[in-house]
Amino acid sequence: MRFSLLGVVLLSAAQSVTAALNASLLEKYVDSLELTSSFNPVKEAYWTGYPHHRRTPFAVSPDGKSAYIAYLDSSETDVHVQKVNPETFKAVGSTVTVTGGKEAGGLVAHNDGFALLTNEALPSGTTNAPADNTPVPVLYLYTNGAQTWKTFLGGPGVHASDGLHASPDLNGDLVYSSDSGIYGAYFVVTAYTGWASGHFGDSIQYVDKTGELLTLADASSSWGCSHNTGIAFESASEPPFASICAEDQGAIWLNTKTRGMTTDGVKVANENTTNGASGEPMGGMSGSYSALARFKDSTRYIFAWPSRGAVDVSENEWMGTGYTHVLPRTENRNVAVALFSDKYTKLGEEATSEVGAQDGDSQVNWVTEGVKDHTNVHAAAFGPVNALVSWEEISDPVCDEFVAMGCRGTFSGTYFQQITYKGMKLGQPIKSEDVYVAGDMVNMGTRRICWPYVDMEWDLAEAVNSWGGETTTTTKMSFACLKLHISELDD
How far apart are CA 171 and CA 202, in angstroms? Predict the structure, then answer.
């Protein structure tokens, strides 16, 4: 009876905010932050060259009194981290520059500082360094503006028996568990020694609050999924943290347990892939942020991604029994969500592995449908009941003959849809033509989700290199927020 009553309360809470999410609740802080260095907000996609937002990691401190944003210098060397006021999004104090950083790959805010995931080239002459100054992943902790420690997550001496790894493109994320005092980083790697030399995979590494790199038998991973452009990662009370990968052999896996792409993981979706490409389900280049979100004060998670659907399931003979290939149902991508009761368990059925099945996507919970293309998909949680899913829409998309990659066309708006912890859509999505999601979507407290973006004309019609070779830079950063109007029963 208690369980039933709780269900009624949660359902009532969800229903009571059905009409609350509307365009008037979208707050814009245009050009609120003056940057001390210039920033190029556009990143070319792998393979296609289509424009992506260059990621600007964003995080808020546990006490809610400060926030931090990280961005890559327009020279593409040096990562700058700026403290900001979480109400006005104006600068507070001096900018911290992490010299040599090649990518702003993940950010955690503390009450007295921040942790940054980046990649950097090793000093000249370093023994066993990767060739051609290829950067390796590294985690920094700064306290009150000064470096506290620095820990390499790849390169010489890191899991050497499995082969040494570099990260020319991190495409990863950084999270922190205050319960365990442990940081988790999940990122793309390429091996430069060992059995996987020359190939791309991913790595999950854990570091304690003193800066010690941990080797956790049931959580750390030197090599996991074969893919090229993205992962999803979110904290848990203790390692292993919740992780999802999109490999290039045919599926998306909840791999918290396996940390790889083995069939004893949870198959979230069948996806049409090709060798080295998996459809950019977690954002592609500069992606892998705010795709997997944890509902507040719970073990539940929501994952959002763009998918072409799946038909005609066949055996992946190279991988063997249990692995499959599929064809896409559509050329364009639609938004999908999956819900998890905990970091190991998907709600509802897994994706099928039945060879010969014509329908390979019957388990998918679709947020959108139709022939428009949907990209730059993200998710964040307002609280324990409601989440926010965002995406960009391309009207009349042109999906060139790139297997398992993106589309191009006229940008027709950014959309925001309220979703419950059971995967139910509440109300209609709201639309903005001048707000984008270009950094982490962060719960700022009081059911308010905020994120950074650059106020610019967003053109998705052509590849970046067709823009005439001009480099767009800015010294202004904007922010946007959405907040639920709630009653006493709301989350």
Answer: 10
